[in-house]
Amino acid sequence: MSDNLALYIHIPFCRGKCPYCDFFSLRGDTQDYNSYIVSLKEAIIYWSEKIDKKVDTIYIGGGTPSVLKAEQVADIINTIKSHFKVTENAEITMEANPKSALNFDFSIVKEAGLNRMSLGIQSANKNELKILGRAHNNDDIKATVKNIKSSGINNISLDLMLGIPEQTIESLKNSIDFCCGLDVEHISVYILKIEENTYFYNNRDKYNFPDEEATADLYLFAVDYLEQKGFNQYEISNFSKTGYESKHNLKYWNLEDYLGIGPAAHSFLNGKRFYYNRSIEDFSNNKIIDDGTGGNESEYIMLQLRLTKGLNLDKYKEAFGEYPDKDFFDKVKKYCNLGFMSYDNNTIKFTKNGFLLSNSILSELI
Ligand code: SF4
User: Which of 253, 268, 288 represents a domain boundary (last residue)?
Assistant: First the structure.
């Protein structure tokens, strides 16, 4: 485990609200962006004076960071670099959506040190993009990927979604083929969750969402097909070419320290959890909410089992002084016999089918 810090910066603005989204994001104008960046820079300086760790990953997420100008994102990165000790090879990622990124000057953020881009494309099928309320089309995605590459940023991740109304194995294959055709390094595949207080939730009867079985088929197809295409699965929803796993996200799953700056951003630092409310005003007033201690045995098991490398019991013992109790192993054996888990070389893992049921299995295990 590294003693370095992962830094997450939240940009809470989007051009509109997607029907499935419950992230904290608002419509903003230039003035909102400018005043938010002032607060953000103050918070970066505030935390840099409290924390002495080296930062080796930075992730600028949202929201839609690409609604900002490239100069503003570069300003954020430069502020971090001048107040925190950022390691020379730090992974610095920014999220973007293909439409708002069309006029974004990637060479400016590359110059500031940004070296990884994550694009939320969700699908390469016109009807699915329409259902998801996304404004971009495949030409926008191609143009944005081309712009990113010509700036010299050569580590690109694309997000796809599973469980979209009307989605079929064939349409999913088309989306994966489209991503592979763009020669990217990383693909995330998230199962759509219908969260309360979203448009999809309030109108769920009007849509033909795939049922659990159909969604499971889509997931298992994605896992196999992505592997065939050279993308190794390293986490429930994440696949990459060798050596291109997200270093930042791996820190969350390995229970390493991270600091989240921005409304709704969560942190885990020196065994403590804390967060900012979903409010720009509270964030500007530096109102930080204590969320107690974290990093216990259950969290460690839950997070490590998200990874395909699984839970190594020797490492667990090193961290917590003893192995999990007999009851835990009895349950693991039961799920091994059912084909949902494996237990070899002192390491417990979910199988592909097990990942699909991981939430309910974990709630019994821990
Ligand atoms: S662009 Fe992303 S963060 Fe913004 S509303 Fe859509 S899903 Fe949510």
Answer: 253
Ligand 1, atom 8, residue with closest C-alpha = 21
Residue of 13, 21, 158 with the most ligand 1 atoms within 8 Å of its CB, for mutation? 21
Whether 74 contacts 108, CB under 8 Å: yes
pLDDT score at 46: 98
Q: Which domain holds residue 365?
A: 297-366
274: in domain = no
Which of 192, 226, 253 is the last residue before a domain boundary? 253
Question: Within this chain, do residues 174 and 313 fall inside the same structural domain, yes or no?
Answer: no
Residue 28 in contact with ligand 1 by CB distance below 6 A: no
Q: How many domains does the chain have?
A: 2
Q: Is residue 291 part of a domain?
A: no
What's the mean pLDDT in 3-7? 96
Q: What integer pLDDT is reported at residue 250 of this predicted model? A: 98
Assess if residue 261 is contained within a domain.
Answer: no
What are φ and ψ of residue 36, in 5° steps?
-65, -40
Contacts of 195 by beta carbon, 8 Å cutoff, 6+ apart: 20, 22, 201
CATH of the domain at 245: 3.20.20.70
Q: Does residue 286 sit within a domain?
A: no
Contact 258, 251 (CB under 8 A): yes
Question: Which one, of 41, 21, 135, lies nearest residue 82 by Cα?
Answer: 41
Query: What is the pLDDT at residue 2?
Result: 74
Structure confidence at residue 100 as a pLDDT band (50, 70, 90): confident
Q: What is the whole-number distance in angstroms between the Cα of residue 291 and the centre of ligand 1? A: 26
Q: Which of 257, 256, 251 is nearest to 235 (CA)?
A: 251
Q: Which amino acid type is present at position 137? A: N
Distance CA 66, CA 199 (A): 24
Q: Which helix (H) or strand (E) holds 86?
A: strand 85-96
User: What CA–CA distance (Å, rounded) separates 295 from 44?
Assistant: 24
Does the beta carbon of 21 lie inside 6 Å of ligand 1?
yes
Q: In the chain, what are the helix, strand and coil shares in percent, each to the nearest 5?
A: 40, 25, 35
Q: CA-to-CA distance for 112 and 215, rounded, in angstroms?
A: 41
Q: Is the CB of 18 under 6 A from ligand 1?
A: yes
